[in-house]
Design a protein that fits this description.
This protein is of the alpha/beta class. The protein has 2 domains: about 5-125 and about 275-305, Aspartate/ornithine carbamoyltransferase (Rossmann fold); about 130-265, Aspartate/ornithine carbamoyltransferase (Rossmann fold). It is built from 9 helices and 8 strands. Helix 5 (about 160-170) links the parallel strand 5 (about 150-155) and strand 6. It is globular, with a radius of gyration of 20 Å. The structure holds N-carbamoyl-L-aspartate. N-carbamoyl-L-aspartate binds near residues 49, 121, 127, 160 and 161. Belongs to the aspartate/ornithine carbamoyltransferase superfamily. ATCase family. One of its GO terms (biological process) is 'de novo' UMP biosynthetic process. GO terms for molecular function: amino acid binding; aspartate carbamoyltransferase activity.
């Protein structure tokens, strides 16, 4: 695996290998890396969890983390993402973790870049490391994916988490359903009432409304969204006995989930954050371990010859 760009590029076998490796790290296992690697985290959109989690994973693998501050980088002077990443490569960076507001920003890095690229979120496209940590959380809970009813609730069409998880979970045999306001279903077929999905769901995965990706506001007040699509205390009481609540966070309390449920016994929201470090260690190790087998001396001129 040279890069991690989209869940669509991973086979079920590759997914399961990463989850097994995450388990190895959670159990206290050591990484197998042949040398010290240099990694930079390029976040052009806000992040608390993903950025810190990647940085923790990099440090636990013994990597050197080279600071990169998007706000003070030369991208603000008009430098392209390609030139930025190429520059970091020439300085000696082995891998870049990137979050950007453009869908598939990584396409411009596919030719001519020798650094490994790990996608930490591309616009409303994909968020593969979040998906892998979600899969790890579900696997730890149920020991399988087959025949689980997994309901993803909220701003489906603007959510990279929904898309990455829908792809992977369906392929792994889960029954993925969606619940959202009709305008946010995108290409998915979605239920529009909790009654259709609440009582037989094994996993309820809530999503934040992606206001930053809306061209026009859908005019939901916090209260009306919570009443119609939020996980209220009353709804939580109707969930199946062993069913769990997930949310990639950041959470807006009392909007997509009642304040009192964020840390209730069914909630895995903070457990997901914890699992994220082991999963990202597994992703980074898999990519870095294979790195020296690629020819990284490739330049754009050679690519066009
Ligand atoms: C998500 C993201 O950035 O896509 N957050 C995360 O990485 N944990 C979800 C969101 O912002 O709502």
């Amino acid at each position: 695996m040279k890069n991690l760009l989209s869940m669509e590029h991973l086979s079920n076998e590759e997914i399961m290998m990463i989850l097994n490796r995450a388990q190895h790290f959670e159990n206290g296992g050591n990484p197998v890396l042949q040398r010290e690697f240099h990694v930079a985290n390029l976040f052009f959109e806000p992040s608390t969890r993903t950025k810190t989690s990647f940085e923790m994973a990099e440090r636990r693998l013994g990597c050197t983390v080279i600071p990169f501050d998007a706000e003070f980088s030369s991208t603000t002077k008009g430098e392209t993402l390609y030139d930025t990443v190429k520059t970091l490569e020439m300085i000696g960076i082995d891998a870049v973790v990137i979050r950007d507001k453009e869908d598939e920003y990584y396409n411009e890095l596919l030719e001519g870049i020798g650094c490994a690229v790990i996608n930490a979120g591309d616009g409303a496209g994909q968020h593969p490391s979040q998906s892998l940590l979600d899969l790890y959380t579900i696997q730890k809970e149920f020991g399988r994916f087959e025949d689980l009813n997994i309901t993803i609730v909220g701003d489906i069409s603007h959510s990279r988490v929904a898309k990455s998880n829908a792809t992977a979970l369906t392929r792994l045999g889960a029954n993925v359903r969606f619940l959202c306001p009709p305008a946010w279903a995108g290409n998915f077929e979605a239920a529009h009432s909790w009654d259709e999905v609440l009582e037989d769901s094994d996993v309820i995965m809530l999503l934040r409304i992606q206001h930053e990706r809306h061209s026009v506001s859908k005019n939901f007040s916090k209260e009306s969204y919570h009443a119609e699509y939020g996980l209220t205390i009353e709804r939580e009481q109707r969930m199946k006995e062993r069913a769990i609540i997930m949310h990639p966070a950041p959470v807006n309390r009392d909007v997509e989930i009642a304040d009192a449920l964020v840390e209730c016994s069914r909630s895995r929201i903070f457990e997901q954050v914890r699992n994220g470090v082991f999963t990202r260690m597994a992703i980074l190790e898999t990519i870095l371990k294979g790195r020296d087998q690629y020819d990284n001396s490739y330049t754009k001129c050679e690519a066009t010859q």
